[in-house]
Sequence to fold (380 residues):
Amino acid sequence: MANRILNGGLLLSLALLAACANQQSAQVLADAEAGFQQVKEDPDVLRSAPKDVIRAGESLARAERLSSYWGSAADVEHYAYLSQRYSQIARQHTELNLNQERLAKLELERDRLQLALREAKLLSAQQWPEGQTVDLAASETDRGLVMTLGDVLFNAGSSELNASANRTILKLVQFLQINPRRTIRIEGYTDNRGPAEENLELSRARAQAVADLLTDLGIDARRMEVKGYGEAHPLAENASARGRAQNRRVEIVISDERGRLGDYR
Amino acid sequence: MNRLLTLGLTLLAVAGCANDPAPHEQMRLTHQAVEQARAIGADPQIEEMRLAEKKLARAEKNMGEEDYKRARVFAEQAELDARLAEARVLNQKSQKQLDELNARITRLRKQLGEM
Fold:
């Protein structure tokens, strides 16, 4: 009889202890169930990450099975945690998959627009030269082949190229398409009027505008470097308006046939 | 007397379960998952990556103490923490690509509109 009472007491205290742990594991289990419920009913998830959903379900079933046993609260929490993670991973993989599908669609759209832009520029460029040879109007310097875009090709004080730049840019695009291994460095320069900081910024912005346009016309951005030099390396004296106009320019340094560019100046 | 024996046997059985085999394969998998997440750019700024590294360290400590049950639990959780961190980083990257592409398409449309 005394034994029985003792045993009863022991069982009761064990039960109380277990109840405490069970409350927490019940919460974790409920969270995992809710997480699984969400992914298993989402057709996008089922299509993109079926394996993760299956594993989430398996871990959850294990946690549920264990939850009916005494003293297994820690194991229940563990498998509920794993299930929850698999559901989250499934969700992330689905999002990734959807993004990749969106990217593929947008890339087609970009290509279509690039083609349209190239055609439009071609139409607007007057006296487009005949034949396959491209005369770049570039000069050989100690830095290699350098092509200069003069100040008149930009809107005053702005980094936006105007329509008269189309012809030169298209020539460059054609040249780069014929010479797929060559790369370029686009360098911006200004005159010395105004704060040096702003000039540096403008020179960089103009160089970047040229790079953006080339990218829009289908040249891989990885083939271009962009650098702003501000008022450094003037071509002429900054004393006269004429000299200053000469100094405001974008130079395009063309690499050798193997894509190697010289060092920065 | 019989009851005590049953209780004793049950306790023994439970204790026996704790004597798990060393989870070498799981440790290898977890190391691999953490390495892979790190290689694609997951850093401890991502919460799950922080958890993965912490739990892997705990698992290794438990391995050293021959507490294989705990080692396996921590290693299994760390593996999934790392995989989730990796998926998050990949997602962030694809989101950035999408943003860039959208910006470019907007720019192209604007240019075409101006011509």
